[in-house]
Amino acid sequence: MNNNATYSHQPWDKVKLIGQKAPLRLRDIWAIRLRLQIVNKTRDLALFDLAIDSKLRAFYLTRLRVRDVAHGKHVASRAIVMQQKTQRPVQFVITEQTRTALETWMHRAQLRTEDYLFPSRLRASEHLSNRQYARIVKAWVKVIGLDPAMYGTHTMRRTKASLIYRRTKNLRAVHCCSVIRSWKALSDTSGSR
To answer: What global pTM score does this model have?
Structure first.
């Protein structure tokens, strides 16, 4: 018996672009911020600003709690997050604009210290999922006329570093601003110098 049947199978990711996702440009950042402010999306604005400032992976960003970035009702100028994979702390600076957006969001959502900073609207999950965050990022870039296939959650992580490099043309400056050594992060929090 001859079984020479042809089987045509198209991979699920055939149209999906692979490789690095592009970082946002400064004009794209301002366009997204402006649109989020106009439509009064306080959660999305806080999420967008914090994603750029923190340079955190989606996994860590979506799992932040209020206590990770705020003391009482006021957002701190710096925050430290412990990486699960490496067990090393990552410190980041929270700009004034981001602090304002976060405080507005926390007040509007009536978040408590132990709450997730970006709770899920679904009852099955306590915090925003990585997939929900990815959809939100796609919506942000789509609304300003960019191709959503070219951008993703890692876009947010890469944006600040690319802006620093474009401004300084200095890789060392990017490294210094993007990576803060563990001992430095720990010494800043312990109060000893």
So the answer is: 0.80
